[in-house]
Amino acid sequence: MARQKTDVLRGTLALLVLKVLASRGALHGYALTALIQQASSNLLRVEEGSLYPALHRMEQEGWIRGRWGKTDTNREARFYGITAAGKRQLATEEQQWEQLTDGVARVLRFA
Amino acid sequence: MAWYNRLFNLLRSGRLSRELDREMEFHLAERTDDLVRAGMSRDAAALEAARRFGNRTIQKEHTHDVDVIVWLESAAADVRYALRAIRASPGFALVVILSLALGIGANTAIFSLINAVVLQALPVKDPQQLLDITTGNDNSRQGESHGNLSNPIFTYPIWEQIRDGVGKDVFSGVFAYADSRVDLSEGGLVRYANGSWVSGDFFSTLGVLPSPGGGRLLQRSDDRPGCAPVAVVSDGFAQRELGGAQSAVGRSISLDGHPFDVVGVVAPSFFGMQVGRAVDVYVPLCTQPIFFGPDVLQSRSRWYLTIVGRPVPGLSEAQVQAALAAHSPGVFAATLPTNWRAADQDDYLKMTLGARPAAGGLSDLRDRYEHALYMLMVVVGVVLVISCANIANLLMARAAARQREIAVRLAIGSSRGRLVRQLLTESLLLSLIGAGAGLLFARWASRLLVHYLSTGSGSVISLDLGIDARVLAFTIGVSVMTGILFGIAPAWRAVRVDPQEAIKSGGRGVVHGEGRQRMGKSLVVGQVALSLLLVTAAALLLGSFRKLTTMDPGFRSDGVLLAQIDFGNSGYDDARLLDAQNELLRRARELPGVRSASTSMITPIGGMSWNDALVVPGFTPGGMLDALAFFNQVSDGYFATLGTDLVAGRDLVPADQGRAIPVAVVNEAMARHFFHEVNPIGRTFSVQRGDSTGPAMEIVGVVRDAKYQKLTEENQPIVYLPFGAGSDPEKYVNLELRSDGSLAALSGGVKELITSMNPAISFDLKTLQAQVSASLTRPRLLATLSGFFGALALLLAVIGLYGTLSYGVARRRNEIGIRLALGAGRERVMRMVVSEAGRLVLLGTVAGLILAFATTRFVASFLYGLDAADPVMLAGSACVLGGVAMAAALLPAWRASRLDPVEALRDE
């Protein structure tokens, strides 16, 4: 499917979410979507609906924790914050990601 | 994600789904607002927001269900993989499944017996409500007791008081019953059936219904003084004896020679109040006088009734107890046996009524076998654990063979947890298949055990051994635990490989290293320890059974035929009864092959007993029990027939039957206890009768001690009175015949003789040996089974040791080859292997002895003549185990010493 090209790479969504939550504190899903797009200068696009299954799974893994709260617009929203386990996971995934990109970059340079 | 989270998600998926809806709703609203701010119309903005969001339903499914489905799919894949692995090595699978089938089957068989005997509630309406009435102080019962003394039993007058008094207040229904054997024959050889006398509200209180088309059950109007002889029969009895439930109603049956009309058939599910004893015939309590004489219901010293009630709704057990206790003084004052000694009357008045739950009914079988079954449960459990160790060893060897595969899978990114799960699936599958086969084996084995108990004890034991939910849950639980027990260690060990190492070293795995050896060795030590425990238990139980069968009971049981004769319907009046009995004895002595014959009231180890307190001049009893002696009435020739030697004085003679001064023969224990070793010939004693004493009796002879009720008892003081010396001639008489020839041929002669004398007399024939043997059913069963399982445990442990040693030798082929090449002697290599085995066996034996010391006291109550910590037995068991184990070690050791160094080194 052509559309997938602009989608966030499979498996990296968790990394992005953890990174954003680690630097910005608790956020709701809509803000997360917006922030990821904004931070990537609109290069990366999260299919908006697919964020929620991912958030749910990460919560089950114990990386993030969700709580119901009120937004500035006075709407009920679920705010997600990173946990200690999430921070450890983030470190691992960041390292893996760097290794991967580093490796891929070398191959592209010297192949 | 943990499986329980997934399961939990399934359960709470409703709430989860609502939460997600709210969350997604919020997202769409925010997006729409943003788009509107950017200049879109609200409708267009809502559409665009939904488009960007994607398919909501699919997203929701992704959130929870997918996890479960993925999980189920991977579980299914694991099962497929496991099945493939099992098919790939059918020999291995067969060995594992068979040993598990036997192990789990044995556990299930014993458990289904425990379930039927101990755990199951009576098949009646709301059995957990039923309460059994108890007395606080059971020592105050005097007079005749019929029934199991561990159960509280009452007299008819007490029952009347409870029925018409306190019982009306606290119970919505209350009934009394008494179980007894009844004879269906009308003269000739007896045919016993299980009878039950029940009060009017028996069936209505229990909520038991008649069989469809099977008439009516007994009701209150059937249970009145002077009632009609009616009976209700069980469904099984109706099928067996009366051609089915429909045709049974209206038929007449003979119970101990008295005709009863069958008015109904009980629904098939109800077997009576005693687990293991299916009642065939129920008759109203008021028919007791038909069997036992007109005054029986008025007797205040005849204890035979069990009383059970269903409390009024809303009343707790404690409230019932309080009410019963409060009414006790009145109940006992109204039923006081006025002919008792003053002190005993005081004790009687102090009794208190109580209540306890009776959901499982009251059962002799349970009293006798509950603890034996628990012990067997432990034994078969230990056997299963020992065989688990062997299977674990086998699995480890197999994991070693599969190591390359596992290493490759680890290398391409499979997680260790996932692999452990896959290997565990395989062990669980094996143990579940084993359990399935085990269930079939258990059905057969538990039936065999019940059959054994029935034939051994001479009474039919009927148990519901169907596989109910509890048995099924037990079996599944045991098999899952078994699967994990033997699977977890090998699986854990298998995945702890370094993929690089494993792939590099080719087929020769690294798990082949010390780790597996160490685990194999510790398993062997554990197996040796546990099997020593079982071998010791078996040695103790077999040893005590041997003592029971080889002990001198004071009589010779071989070559003696017993005839239990009931003159109740013979038609002889009291004056002629004794003459008829003497006549029978005279003619029995003339039968061909009879060396000697006698008559008596009681036969040894026959279950009947008669005791009374003695008054002996010069003897002051230390208490009521101290003055008790057992009694029997015997004719001349009794001691010669039974083989009990006369040690002083003379035997009883026919002329003693009507002597003015009664005479008696006593045993040595009686002489020792009451006359302190002094020759008692010519001395007198009398029997306590209430507050007075009976006539003085003179001792004319002393015989050797003989067992009276049980082989296991201490020798009791026994008084033998002349047969027929009592005021009323006995209606139940035993005839003993000693013969040098065949007892089977002799029984034909006895049958003919009795029938020709009077066809209305009913009688039962058995050998004294069979009667003694029946009393040994439980020790024999325990000795047989523990011996079997002890041997099995020993075998399993030896197989484990052999396997581990053989494997060790195979692994050290190189090393041994080098040693041999460098000039090590063959006996030195052998010594090396044997000493390793010796170390394992020694460790296991020490552990096993500690275990045995700590636990054998639990079998102490099943032992006779042996201490549970008997040093000879413990040391003997350890030696047997050590000997067998070392013999098993010799083969691998010998093989190691025969290694050809050239071959062994070339392999490398």
| Total domain modules of chain A | 1
Kindly state the number of beta strands of chain A: 3
Mean pLDDT of chain B: 86
**Distance between the terminal alpha carbons of chain B, to the nearest Å?**
46 Å
CATH superfamily of chain A: Winged helix-like DNA-binding domain superfamily/Winged helix DNA-binding domain
Give the strand line-up of the largest sheet of chain A: 1-3-2
Task: Please name the CATH architecture of chain A.
Answer: Orthogonal Bundle
Instruction: Please state the overall shape of chain A, judged from the principal axes of the Cα atoms.
Output: globular
Helix content of chain B: 40-55%
How big is the Rg of chain B? 37 Å
Write down the overall geometry of chain B: globular
The topology string of helices and strands of chain A comes to HEHHEEH
Question: How would you characterize this protein structure?
Answer:
- The complex is a heterodimer of chains A (111) and B (908).
- Chain A has 111 residues and is of the alpha+beta class.
- Chain A has a single domain (2-110), classed as Arc Repressor Mutant, subunit A (Orthogonal Bundle), CATH 1.10.10.
- Chain A contains four helices and three strands; from the N terminus they run αβααββα.
- In chain A, strands 1-3-2 form a three-stranded antiparallel β-sheet.
- In chain A, strand 2 (64-70) and strand 3 form a beta hairpin.
- In chain A, helix 1 crosses helix 4 (84-110).
- The longest helix of chain A has 27 residues, at 84-110.
- Chain A is globular, with a radius of gyration of 15 Å.
- Chain A starts with 12 loop residues before the first helix and ends with a helix.
- Chain B is globular, with a radius of gyration of 37 Å.
- In chain B, helix 20 crosses helix 28.
- The two termini of chain B are 46 Å apart.
- Chain B has four domains: 3-63, no CATH class; 127-359, no CATH class; 366-549 and 777-906, no CATH class; 568-760, no CATH class.
- Chain B has 908 residues and is an alpha+beta fold.
- In chain B, the strands form four sheets. In chain B, strands 1, 3, 5, 6, 7, 8, 9, 10, 12 and 13 form a ten-stranded mixed β-sheet that branches. In chain B, strands 16-17-23-19-22-20 form a six-stranded mixed barrel.
- In chain B, a hairpin with a 2-residue loop joins strand 8 and strand 9.
- The chains are: A alpha+beta (111), B alpha+beta (908).
- At the A-B interface, helix 2, helix 3 and strand 3 of A face helix 2 and helix 4 of B.
